[in-house]
Amino acid sequence: MPNAGLRAYREVLRLVRRLPAETRPYYAKYARENFVNYRDLSADDDLAALLGRAYTHSAWVLSKYSIDAEKATARLKVLGDSHTGQ
Length: 86
Fold this sequence. Notes:
- The protein is globular, with a radius of gyration of 12 Å.
- 74% of the residues lie in helices and 0% in strands.
- It has one domain (4-82).
- It has helices spanning 3-16, 24-37, 44-64, 69-72, 74-84.
- By secondary structure, it is mainly α.
- It comes from Dichanthelium oligosanthes.
- This is Complex 1 LYR protein domain-containing protein.
- Pfam families: Complex1_LYR (PF05347).
- InterPro entries: Complex1_LYR_dom, Complex1_LYR_LYRM9.
């Protein structure tokens, strides 16, 4: 997975730290498993789709715990947008 994937993974782990302490291990493991499953992506379209899903899912989880998802996921969104050419 190119550097964008690694940067997205790091950003997701930063977002996990904003969650309630008792939920962090679950979401950190979930994020790791998902990024490991897709680490061999080669096409930019596939990576862009993965980054989009990472953003959407992260925003949903943060909103679930009443955390300002729009502000918190801004860096992840920029990373995804840079790969989709938006």
